[in-house]
Design a protein that fits this description.
Helices cover 28% and strands 2% of the residues. By secondary structure, it is an all-alpha fold.
């Protein structure tokens, strides 16, 4: 009887092994659970990605601390990074070692050199303490090897509705000083002059015979190549902001209230941008590339085009609704384009009419008049509605 039970036990084990190997009995294994629909095991959650200690992601839960836990305001070198009249109290240096050691002591003594040291140091080691430039000021960081490819974990929330009236007043802020951002002259700036306090045309062509940002291929024909004056600039550092929000003025949020403006980057909408195409153009201006990567309307829109250059910003942008931390508030709606580019019929010359009519006649047609990537996608309902309204 004992031998018979032992044989049965061995047979059962053999069956289980065969079933497990073939996947049939997987839902019996510890750590799995059968689904009601299929009876098979529901897949386990994918393991968390292995920590990459050569980077410091702010969006990791353990790193979501009060900014002051690591960044001390102001940095000891604030008047060395910016000098003379341009200097102002700011965070311009990486945190000290004790900010990292409380959690990462093990990583500090692992590897030759330890990977974690490369976050801040150019060539980690006891003989070289040289650091990468800190991401602030951007004007310095963007020119460094690390800065040219770095992407920020943050977006900066700038609510235009709270600032447009203040900026448009051409008055000395009650701070005891004024920076070049504020232009003197009349008592008030017009709306467009107000926008130009922060936004100027990037790399305008001016009198140059070269219309492209970088030399175009000799046989370009009607193919696309990025032109000068396509993008507008925006402040990339604290200089403009601290004109009013300074340590001297006491205006809130103050310069040490980092989290008021700096928000973890949300999921960004898909942009009308082709990384491979942009790379072939060899554009080195990071502000230009950052702007292009965020173009979620028309990737080709050129601000300096002769028909656009005299238009008011409010023709396309709903300025008072724009908050730079929310990408949806910055999207240019097709109704803005329709003002000029939709006509009663395609024969009347409306660019949108012509493109949509061509796509309707030939589904393989790509709408490249305005778009780089989006022109391959199905025609959006908003475009069809704009044409219908134009009739």
């Amino acid at each position: 009887m004992v031998n018979g039970n032992r044989v049965k036990k061995f047979r059962l084990i053999a069956v289980l092994l065969v079933c497990t190997a073939s996947g049939i009995g997987a839902y019996y294994l510890p750590g799995t659970q059968a689904t009601a629909e299929t009876g098979f095991a529901a897949p386990k959650e994918a393991p968390a990605p292995k920590a990459k200690y050569s980077e410091f992601p702010h969006n990791v839960k353990a790193h979501q601390l009060e900014c002051a836990n690591c960044h001390k305001f102001p940095s000891e070198n604030w008047n060395k990074v910016r000098t003379g009249d341009a200097a102002f109290a700011d965070i311009t240096e990486y945190p000290k070692h004790d900010s990292c050691l409380s959690c990462h002591k093990q990583q500090f003594f692992k590897g030759r050199p330890p990977k974690i040291c490369s976050i801040c140091h150019v060539n980690p080691g006891p003989r070289d303490s040289t650091r990468h430039p800190f991401p602030n000021p951007r004007e310095i960081f963007d020119l460094s090897k690390k800065g040219k490819t770095a992407t920020s974990d943050w977006v900066v929330g700038f609510p235009h509705d709270k600032h447009i009236e203040i900026v448009s007043r051409n008055e000395r802020p009650d701070t005891g000083f004024v920076r070049a951002s504020f232009v003197r002259g009349s008592t008030r700036l017009a709306g467009e002059e107000s926008c130009s306090v922060c936004h100027q045309t990037l790399s305008p062509q001016g009198d140059s015979p070269d219309e492209f940002v970088t030399p175009a291929p000799p046989k370009l024909g009607d193919a696309f190549w990025l032109k000068k004056g396509t993008f507008k600039s925006a402040p990339i550092g604290h200089t403009t902001c601290f004109t009013c929000h300074s340590a001297d003025s006491g205006m809130l949020p103050g310069p040490s209230d980092c989290a008021t403006c700096h928000k973890l980057k949300p999921e960004m909408p898909k942009a009308d941008f082709d990384e491979k195409l942009a790379k072939s153009m060899k554009i080195v201006d990071k502000r230009m590339m950052d702007s292009w990567r965020r173009r979620d309307s028309s990737g080709k829109f050129q601000h300096a085009f002769m028909a656009h250059v005299d238009m008011e910003c409010a023709m396309c942008h709903t300025v008072t609704e724009m908050n730079t931390a929310d990408p949806l508030t910055k999207k240019v709606k097709i109704s803005s384009c329709a003002t000029c580019h939709v006509t009663a019929t395609a024969s009347d010359g409306g660019a949108l009419n012509i493109e949509v009519e061509a796509r309707t006649a030939k589904p393989a047609f790509q709408c490249v008049k305005c778009h780089i990537v989006f022109g391959k996608l199905p025609i959006p309902e908003s475009h069809s509605a704009a044409i219908a309204a134009g009739k």
